[in-house]
């Protein structure tokens, strides 16, 4: 397998428009996410956050899952079958809220490959640096991306801190790798 494209993406045609909706993620889910990413060692890995979304578009994370996948130092790949295996077991009404993956270094912006790997444009995309070794309190240092019109925007720190909020609550964690 090859590493992710190093070619930079085109710049967005229009700026990101901040939205009111929040993604609320229990502190336990952020901890489990770091743990799962670190368990992959010096390899990129992909995870998914699932949960409920209310009428105002606010998401609540209840479930952190690592599907079966291929992992290398420079990319990861989840087959549609492996993803379906997880989705089929979700309780009714639960949605994919975020797609997560790790990068080797500090760069957390999407590659072209990352744009192509997104399984839902309604999900957020979170890229964790240093294979999931946290260097700052979440979500600082994490690349949070949101799809608008025709582009996966990387949010600036202010927008990111408004968009993804750490809360209490319990989560289910599953590692199928
Ligand atoms: Zn990537």
Could you explain the architecture of this structure?
The strands form 2 sheets. Strands 1, 2, 3, 6, 7, 8, 9, 10 and 11 form a 9-stranded mixed β-sheet that branches. The chain has a two-stranded antiparallel ribbon with strand order 4-5. Helix 3 links the parallel strand 6 and strand 7 (about 125-130). It has about 180 residues and is an alpha/beta fold. The model has no long low-confidence stretch (mean pLDDT about 95). The chain has helices at about 25-40, 80-85, 110-115, 155-165, and strands spanning about 25, 45-55, 60-65, 70, 75, 95-100, 125-130, 145-150, 150-155, 165, 170-175. The protein has a single domain, classed as Cytidine Deaminase, domain 2, CATH 3.40.140. The radius of gyration is 15 Å and the shape is globular. The two termini are about 20 Å apart. The site of zinc ion has 6 residues, from loops.
Distance between the termini: 18 Å
The CATH H-level superfamily is Cytidine Deaminase, domain 2
State the shape: globular
Largest sheet features: 9 strands, mixed
Strand content: 25-35%
CATH architecture heading: 3-Layer(aba) Sandwich
Output the CATH class name.
Answer: Alpha Beta
Question: SSE layout and pairings?
Answer:
Layout: E1 23-26, H1 27-39, E2 46-53, E3 59-66, E4 70-71, E5 76-77, H2 80-87, E6 95-102, H3 112-117, E7 124-128, E8 143-148, E9 151-154, H4 157-163, E10 164-167, E11 172-175
Explain briefly what this protein structure is.
The protein has 177 residues and is of the alpha/beta class. The chain has four helices and eleven strands, in the order βαββββαβαβββαββ.
């Amino acid at each position: 397998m090859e590493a992710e494209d190093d070619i930079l993406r085109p710049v967005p045609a229009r700026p990101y428009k901040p939205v009111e909706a929040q993604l609320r993620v229990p502190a336990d889910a952020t901890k489990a996410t770091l743990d799962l990413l670190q368990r992959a060692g010096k390899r990129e890995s992909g995870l998914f956050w699932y949960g409920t979304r209310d009428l105002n578009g606010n998401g609540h994370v209840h479930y952190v899952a690592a599907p079966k996948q291929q992992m290398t130092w420079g990319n990861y790949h989840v087959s549609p079958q492996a993803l379906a295996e997880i989705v089929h077991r979700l309780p009714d009404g639960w949605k994919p809220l975020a797609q997560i993956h790790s990068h080797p270094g500090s760069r957390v912006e999407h590659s072209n490959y990352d744009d192509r790997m997104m399984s839902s444009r309604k999900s957020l995309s979170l890229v964790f640096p240093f294979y999931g070794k946290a260097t700052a309190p979440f979500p600082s240092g994490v690349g949070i991306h949101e799809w608008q019109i025709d582009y996966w925007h990387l949010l600036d720190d202010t927008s990111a801190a408004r968009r993804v909020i750490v809360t209490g609550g319990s989560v289910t964690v599953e590692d199928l790798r």
